[in-house]
Specification:
This protein is mainly alpha-helical. It has one domain. 60% of the residues lie in helices and 4% in strands. It has eleven helices and five strands; from the N terminus they run βααααααααββαββαα. It has a three-stranded antiparallel sheet with strand order 1-3-2, with helices on both faces. A two-stranded antiparallel sheet has the order 4-5. Strand 4 and strand 5 form a beta hairpin. The longest helix is centred in the first third of the chain and has 30 residues. The two termini are 31 Å apart.
């Protein structure tokens, strides 16, 4: 989910799309950079986890659609549980659950880099890697707890996202990932534009300063610590609930332009879903072409599957650009339809040229 408030020109009138995007280019570029960085970090650690023992449901589970249904069910349960707890005011439990889940993903993402650093220092051992990974992951979560400024949230969020895209991407073949992405996009559209409960979930996470979203400030003096718990659903203070048909109310002549939102927010899931297909592509597509050892410090990749993975990433960026044209207008947006759609299209196009369409299909079963 990606949301923003409509920008205004100096005279109080709404400008053209180009003017609106130009006024927000720093935050849009920053968000795009985090989108790419998260996926590339996941891609860099993919070789070390691309083994049967690391797959969530084992080697045989990579082509079973029933596990995708289970993943969707867990997402639904998590969303309902968090919203229920938030309405009951049990914030400490929400924070505990989310921080623990974040720590686990961060621990997996940090381990390869800890091993690489210790190897360079000639101090590598299993116990040293585990201890170093624990220190970094626990320390990062603690810092997030005591000082959740936007750059801390983003730093943890990027590494968490990299860990999640890797662990899910190595667990399912691309066909199943695409099914997952299509179903998630449909759900995201309904959750943002239909029930709007995703907006409530986003406000809860912003209020608790948890990195299940990324924050791209428009200016250097922005502080995420000052954000309240009604960024997504309410309008400027004391103006009442926002009309979602027109998120920005009329501004009387002579009273100046509205300040607008000071940062762009994007749910971490908007990065994770395209990233999963990138990782799945390099994990399960035919390992043909030239060996590319220098792309990742942790193993060898093959050019053909890597081309498809990078083509998928480029497709996701095209979807991101299309998403930003809507975000600039100030309308609440479900990010996954455009991001997932662009990624899937990039996968098909790059796969056609690198491998052939017949190589993009994997036989799947439900159980």
């Amino acid at each position: 989910m990606a949301l923003e408030v409509r920008a205004y020109m100096a005279d109080g009138e709404e400008g053209s799309l180009l003017d609106l995007m130009r006024g927000q280019w720093t935050s849009m570029m920053g968000m795009g950079g985090m989108f790419v960085a998260t996926i590339l970090i996941g891609l860099s650690i993919q070789p070390i986890y691309n083994i049967p023992e690391a797959r969530a449901f084992g080697e045989s589970g990579t082509s079973k659609g029933g596990f995708i249904a289970l993943e969707l069910l867990m997402i639904g349960i998590f969303t309902v549980a968090i919203i229920w707890l938030a309405r009951k005011g049990i914030d400490w439990l929400i924070k505990g659950i989310v921080l623990f889940a974040l720590w686990m993903s961060l621990f997996y993402a940090v381990q390869p880099y800890a091993a690489l650093l210790l190897f360079i220092l000639n101090m590598e051992s299993l116990s040293a890697v585990i201890i170093a990974s624990l220190v970094v992951s626990v320390g990062s979560i603690y810092l997030l707890h005591v000082y959740p400024e936007w750059y801390v949230v983003n730093g943890v969020g990027i590494m968490v996202g990299a860990g999640v895209v890797t662990m899910i991407g190595i667990s399912f073949v691309p066909v199943l990932i695409i099914v997952f992405m299509i179903l998630a996009a449909i759900y995201d559209h309904w959750a943002v534009n239909g029930s709007k409960h995703m907006l409530e979930l986003a406000d809860t996470m912003i209020d608790l300063k948890l990195p299940v979203l990324l924050v791209a400030p428009k200016s250097s003096d922005y502080s995420f610590l000052d954000e309240g718990d009604s960024v997504m659903r309410d309008d400027v203070p004391n103006e009442g609930p926002r009309d979602w048909e027109d998120p920005v109310p009329e501004v009387p002549v002579g009273k100046g332009k509205p300040k607008g939102r000071e940062a762009l927010f994007m749910g971490l899931g908007d990065v994770i879903f395209p990233g999963m297909l990138v990782i799945s592509s390099v994990s399960f597509l035919p390992q043909t072409g030239s060996e590319i050892a220098y792309f990742s410090a942790f193993g060898v990749m093959y050019s053909d599957s890597l081309i498809v993975g990078l083509g998928t990433l480029i497709g996701g960026l095209v979807g991101y650009l299309a998403l930003m044209t809507q975000v600039a207008r100030g309308k609440p947006q479900a990010g996954l339809p455009l991001l997932n759609g662009g990624s899937i299209l990039g996968y098909i196009i790059s796969g056609y040229f690198a491998l052939g369409l017949d190589q993009l299909w994997q036989d799947i079963t439900f159980l």
